[in-house]
Amino acid sequence: MNPISIIGAGIGGLTLGNILKQQNLDFTIYESAPEIKPVGAGIMMAVNAMQIFEKLDLKEKIENAGNKIHGIFITDEKLKTISTTNILALEKKFNSCNVAIHRADLQNILAENLGFENIKLDYNLNKIDKKKNYHLKFENGSEIESRIVFGADGIHSKVRNQILESGIIRNAGQKCWRGLVDFDLPEQYFHHALEIWGKGKRFGFVKLSENRVYWYALINNKNFKENLDLVLVFEDFDPLILQIIEATKQENIILNYITDLAPIPKWFAENLCLIGDAAHATTPNMGQGACQSIEDAYVIGKLLEKNKDFNSVFEEFQKIRRKKVDYIVDTSWKIGKLSHWENGNYIRNFLMRSVPESINQKMIEKILQLEM
C-alpha cells in the first residue's frame, strides 16, 4: 500500500513532491501523460513562487534556465504605456525576482530534483473510491491502495469530481493562442513582459532565454472563426506584434478556451486534499495559476512540519489559503473582462493611466507575500 499518492505531475504536484521529499515522507506521483510534456509553452514564475523555490534550493537553477523579468507593462496597440508594474523594490524586499521560463524546463528541474523514481508516467486515473483507504484504478489496468491522496490533477480533476462532487467550470468567453518562436526582440524588452490591450483583443510576449520568445493572443469568442489569420486580427497593432506572429511556425502554436473554476466549498475530504487548479483554477490574467499551486504545496509543507495529522493540516490549509486564492480568481476574472472591452477603450486606458503606481505596487505586494 502507498502511504501518499499525488495525482498529477504538473507544477503543483511536482512542487508538493519536492516538499514531501524534504520532510522524508514516502510518496508516489501518478501522471496520466506518457512523458512530462510542456503544455502552454512559456510560464512566468513570480516572486512568490521564487521565494519557495529558494527554500527548496532550486532558485538559482530556475533563474539560469529562464530569464529574469523586472517589470510588466500594459500598453495600447501602439505600445504606449497604460500601466507599469516595476518590481525592483519588491525584488529587494523578498530577495527574489520574476523568472520567465519554458514550462518543460521548469517541470524537468522539479522532476529531476525529486527523482524520476518517484513519478509513474502513463497512469491515467480512471476511478477513485474511498473504503478504509483510497482505491485508485488507472486506465493501464493498475490498481493501487493509498492512505493519503492529493488531487493535483487540474481544472478537470477526477479526484474532485468523484470524491467531492463539486466544481463548475466557467468559460470566460475568450479564445487564446499560445506560441513559441525564435525571435530577436528589441533590447528594451529583454527583461520586461508586455501585454498590449486593443478592442476586444490583446497580445502579450516575454523573452524566455537566448532568443526564445513566448507569446499569447486572445480574442472574444464571438469574433472567433476557424482558420483565423492572426496577422489580420492584429493588423492595427504595432508592427513588432505582427513580426512575432509571422515568425512563428504553425506547429508551435496551441489554441484553447480561457476558463476558471467557480469557488467550491471544500478542498478536502477525509485523508484527501486538492491543490492548485483542482481546487481553485484561475484565468491567466495575473500570471498566478501555477504560482498559487506552488504556494499550496508550500503551506501544506509548513503545516506538516508541526503536525503530521493530515486531516487537521488539510482543514488549516484551506483556512489559510482561501482568502488569497478567492481574491486572485475574482480579480483575474475582472481584469479579463476589462482588457477585452470593445468600446470605450480610450476612457478605460485614461482611467488606468491615472491610477498611481503605488496602488499597483500594493496590490502586487499583497499577492507576492507568502502567508507563512
What does this molecule look like?
There is one protein chain. The chain is an alpha/beta fold. It has helices at 11-22, 47-55, 59-65, 88-94, 103-114, 158-164, 230-233, 239-246, 277-280, 289-306, 310-338, 345-353, 357-368, and strands at 2-7, 27-30, 42-45, 67-69, 71-75, 81-86, 98-102, 119-120, 125-130, 134-138, 143-151, 169-182, 192-197, 201-209, 212-220, 253-261, 268-269, 272-274. The strands form three sheets. Strands 1, 2, 8, 9, 10, 11, 17 and 18 form an eight-stranded mixed β-sheet that branches. The longest helix is centred in the last third of the chain and has 29 residues, at 310-338. The chain is globular. The two termini are 32 Å apart.
Key attributes of the depicted protein:
37% helix; alpha/beta; 8-stranded mixed beta sheet; 18 strands; 13 helices; 372 residues; 7-stranded mixed beta sheet; globular
How is the topology of this model organized?
Elements: E1 2-7, H1 11-22, E2 27-30, E3 42-45, H2 47-55, H3 59-65, E4 67-69, E5 71-75, E6 81-86, H4 88-94, E7 98-102, H5 103-114, E8 119-120, E9 125-130, E10 134-138, E11 143-151, H6 158-164, E12 169-182, E13 192-197, E14 201-209, E15 212-220, H7 230-233, H8 239-246, E16 253-261, E17 268-269, E18 272-274, H9 277-280, H10 289-306, H11 310-338, H12 345-353, H13 357-368
Parallel strand pairs: 1-2, 1-11, 2-8, 5-13, 11-18
Antiparallel strand pairs: 3-7, 4-7, 5-6, 9-10, 10-11, 12-15, 12-16, 13-14, 14-15, 17-18
Helix pairs in contact: 1-5, 1-10, 10-11
